[in-house]
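Private note to self, pasted from the team thread so I don't lose it. Backbone tokens:
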């Protein structure tokens, strides 16, 4: 059985939910912040840039307050509960935007699959990130908002991948656009807003396309009978539907031509196209919903297979260069359920999956 910590966040107001999170994750937040502080500095230095992290974080707070002020209240609660300055929690939640400002390369990253069609719609993904942050995430259930939800996230960050009690699931892949910077609503907070408040597929997609982001990502919305990826970038947003058989593959490049014109990630790291081709080929032969076993058979691919979907950190290397698949997640929106394996798909066994169900409000 997976031994990863599960935080059960409660509270009838945003601030109280934040305080509860901050108290429970206090030690983890402190550890995670030390790594991120070093990561921000080292990435910026490698690109001959200097960052004012507090100012960048607070710029994102201003954008968030204008879009969804309750998210700012929740972050304020986290800072109070954890006993840390507010701007550090804001910076953790805006880590994607701050790293974009620093000019971070995004080698590694995530691969997502969705299968719909005649059967119920299910999805799953690898979550790839820096190996130095392998102990900086947790499982969670959150109650007290419009909808309760379950998922995984990093210490101090309100949400990432998950599914809510209304059966709305969210999968997460970072993209890269030439206009990416800090200053908009952080993409992790956009995911949090969908999980906590969206009651349907249409509500989730509408919420995503309205979000004034400044860094790029693609959030894939999965419900029991529908799915789509919403590409978000400073240049705009676009909805990408599955193919005629309900299949959808996402890695880390834009699929919409208008947004692909500003592509940054794929130009720097063309392996995203290799992963997309390999997974598309594998998915062609797959029928039926994704259970954990089916997901593992599709995602367990390494360089010798033609693309490194399941990512392993090298023994040597500096912070920022050691990518690893930190988690493998299967989402079944019809059951309001996630299955989470701590690590890459090649190490998954029946006994290593943790089952999470979205709680009621």
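Design output:
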């Amino acid at each position: 059985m997976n031994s990863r910590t599960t935080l059960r966040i409660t509270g009838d107001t945003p601030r109280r939910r934040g305080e509860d999170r901050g108290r429970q994750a206090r030690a983890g937040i402190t550890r995670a912040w030390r790594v991120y502080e070093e990561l921000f500095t080292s990435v910026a230095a490698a690109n001959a840039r200097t960052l004012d992290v507090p100012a960048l974080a607070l710029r994102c707070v201003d954008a968030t307050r204008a879009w969804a002020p309750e998210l700012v209240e929740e972050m304020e609660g986290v800072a109070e509960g954890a006993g840390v300055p507010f701007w550090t929690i804001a910076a953790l939640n805006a880590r994607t935007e701050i790293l974009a400002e620093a000019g971070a390369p995004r080698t590694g990253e995530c691969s997502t699959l969705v299968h719909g069609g005649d059967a119920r719609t299910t999805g799953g993904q690898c979550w790839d990130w820096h190996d130095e942050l392998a102990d900086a995430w947790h499982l969670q259930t959150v109650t007290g908002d419009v909808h309760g939800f379950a998922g995984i996230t990093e210490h101090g960050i309100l949400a990432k991948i998950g599914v809510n009690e209304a059966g709305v699931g969210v999968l997460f892949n970072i993209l890269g656009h030439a206009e990416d910077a800090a200053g908009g609503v952080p993409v992790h907070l956009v995911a949090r807003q969908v999980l906590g408040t969206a009651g349907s597929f249409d509500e989730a997609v509408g919420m995503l396309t309205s979000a004034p982001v400044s860094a790029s990502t693609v959030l894939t919305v999965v419900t029991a009978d529908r799915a789509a990826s919403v590409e978000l970038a400073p240049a705009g947003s676009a909805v990408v539907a599955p193919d005629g058989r309900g299949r959808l593959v996402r890695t880390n490049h834009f699929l919409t031509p208008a947004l692909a014109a500003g592509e940054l990630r794929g130009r720097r790291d063309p392996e995203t196209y290799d992963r997309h081709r390999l997974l598309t080929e594998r998915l062609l032969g797959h029928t039926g919903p994704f259970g954990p076993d089916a997901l593992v058979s599709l995602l367990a691919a390494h360089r010798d297979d033609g693309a490194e979907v399941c990512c392993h950190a090298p023994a040597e290397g500096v912070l920022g260069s050691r990518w690893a698949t930190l988690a493998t997640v299967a989402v079944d929106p019809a059951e309001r359920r996630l299955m989470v394996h701590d690590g890459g798909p090649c190490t998954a066994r029946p006994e290593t999956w943790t089952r999470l169900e979205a709680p009621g409000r």
